UniProtKB/TrEMBL annotation:
E.C. number: 6.1.1.6
Names of the cofactor(s): Mg(2+)
A molecular function GO annotation: lysine-tRNA ligase activity
Organism listed in the record: Antiquaquibacter oligotrophicus
Subunit note: Homodimer.
Gene: lysS
UniProt name for this protein: Lysine--tRNA ligase
Domain Aminoacyl-transfer RNA synthetases class-II family profile, residue spans: 187-497
Residues binding Mg(2+) 1, per UniProt: 414, 421
Amino acid sequence: MTDATAPEPELTEEEVSQQKSVRLAKRDKLIESGAGAYPVGVGISTTIPEVRAQYPNLEPDTATGDVVGLAGRVVHLRNTGKLCFASLQSGDGERIQAMISLAEVGEESLERWKELVDLGDHVFVSGEVISSRRGELSILAREWAIASKAIRPLPNLHTELSDEARMRSRYLDLIVREQARQTVRARAAVNASLRSTFSHHHYLEVETPMLQVIHGGASARPFVTHSNAFDTELYLRIAPELFLKRAVVGGIERVFEINRNFRNEGADSTHSPEFAMLEAYQAYGDYNQMADLTQQLVQDAARAVTGGLQVTLADGTEYDLGGQWSRISMYDSLNEASGLSITPQTLAGELYQHAESLGIEVQHPTHGKLVEELWEHYVKPGLDRPTFVMDFPVDTSPLVRDHRSIEGVVEKWDLYVRGFELATGYSELVDPVIQRERFVEQAKQASRGDDEAMRLDEEFLRALEHGMPPSGGMGMGIDRLIMAITGLGIRETILFPLVK
């Protein structure tokens, strides 16, 4: 059906209020008539997508003899004398034309349609599947009913919603914009793919606490709340790591979790205070094996969403997630890009002077923080292809095992895709004595004002003292994984992002 209505500007609040008054009056009429404005159900026998799939190429002006009952939201409406047209949209955006004719429904029903149906209403129609003279797949209605009366009008379907409106009213974004619906489907496909890949590798999925007495597992500032039942301060978790490692101690040797994390930090195009996180741990694995697993997880997810590894991003450019991804040393790549000779033994003061000369500010500077900041300055901007950056400074990675052959670094990698950090992986620190020493050093940093430093967790240390097998671990942001595959910003990947 062709909508003959010209594009109109967005309604003002006064106009919305007026439309609400008119629609509320229609609601009252529906209730008074006994038909109801919000029936408990309608006689659906099929769906719009199913009908479209059954009749993909129906010739113009054809009657099928197939009588169906279906429902959808009215997104276009054109009322003429003896024949009215509506475009009904299903939740996934598929549409079909409904034709309400005097000959089929009678005069009273046709007049009620004209009087009571508005854009945005959910409507049920029952009738024969036909194609119009123009070849448009249609339902020639024999009966119709309001399935849900919309009191507030839809936004202008010819004009894109503003970014603010899309974030604040995602339900409208889903109604009017195909990309929004595609992103929801992509996220579901990614989560299903992740679980499938883990299942193939014999991992078990578990759930760990979101409310924690001690926050840990990452360097981040937590959200703080209070439990009235326990009369104690609690933290929204910043990572599930310390509980997943307890599971490994208990004998769940391959374990993963997909759930929500919360970090009381800034929000930008790659950070959200509330975000979805994947973490996984494998007994008798190391950071090399976890890198192999992570590459497979990402590539399997890309195939699930796009059908291949050459993905088309939101801006139309293509990005290659295929092949074997490079693995580079943090220190070696820093020295190559900067022309410096930085080693794990280079004094923090020397690094600080160089960072200061570049205008790089580092809060609570340590050797490790300075090395990482310098690396981000010199190397990160040049990363385009998916790349594992290996072997980090020891003082910024308190939960990671010392490198087996290089003094002063730990067996940790960060995965960069499209220039941003997507995932991180470790050979896990399982020595409870060294772990305690690392926690004590973190506590000292916290006492000096570092809000992101980890706290000493005696319960976790007690678990380690019972013996944790050598293990590899990895963590990846689900929102960032969607970003890597689609090219969208982080708020676009989250169904209902936090809006101030």
